[in-house]
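Listing S7. Sequence submitted for prediction.
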Amino acid sequence: MSVVPALRARRVVPAACAAILALAACGQATQAGSATREDLGDFVVREALLETDEYVDLANQLSEEGWLEDIAEALNASLNLPVDIGIRFAECGQSNAFYLPDEREIQMCLELFDGEREVFAAYFETEQEIEDAVAGSFHWTVFHEVGHALVDVLDIPVTGREEDTADSLATWWLIDGQGGEASTISAALSFYTDPSQAGEIDDSEYAGDHSFSQQRYYALACHVYGSDPEGYAYLLEEEWLTPERAEYCPAEFERLSASWYALLAPHLKE
């Protein structure tokens, strides 16, 4: 991978998410046998679970800007759900995010902001570039957890790692969504590890339920490139992808898109 280019990362316009699924609904409306399911639930933003004043202030700021509220509104405008799914900010003691199936709740750990800043500080020089990349990666992570939630409540079939399925939903949903592709690129970069600095892989990593971070990086970069090889030619030119992988990315993204359209068709609002 060459010197990291300007990622053009910016905060995702949440309304774009609704636009993407509206297109999906139009594409599926004419398909036989895709009866729309009854709408019995919503994504519901719940009160933050916080203890530290610093994180309380951050959560208040993010809520004022509508980070989770706008995403929930876009999801609810697009999907018919059988039950409510909660989503909230939380203080988790680690830089992470979770979907809790027993509570049917997504918890977005505010420690993510600290962890991601450390990651992106290695790639960007200005504070604005770092903040833009953090925001983009955070939004991608929200939709990754949405993927887990939908697999659970919609009984979406999974034939491999569920983590890979959640990655693919987040990526498909956001690509080409008025800034969503930049969020996916930011998320990809957050997974990147310079091979020259990579250590040995131990058994705990082989046994994990996630693909290796470097594999997730290439998968996300491949899907963005495959969605528009001309528009994202710089990903190949600047060595985000190998030529061998890039050759198959358009077909890979086409299959990904067709699969998610088919899986979500019965649950899309008309």
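Caption to Listing S7: primary sequence and predicted structure tokens for the chain studied. The CA atoms of residues 13 and 124 lie 22 Å apart. The beta strands are 43-45, 85-90, 97-100, 105-109.
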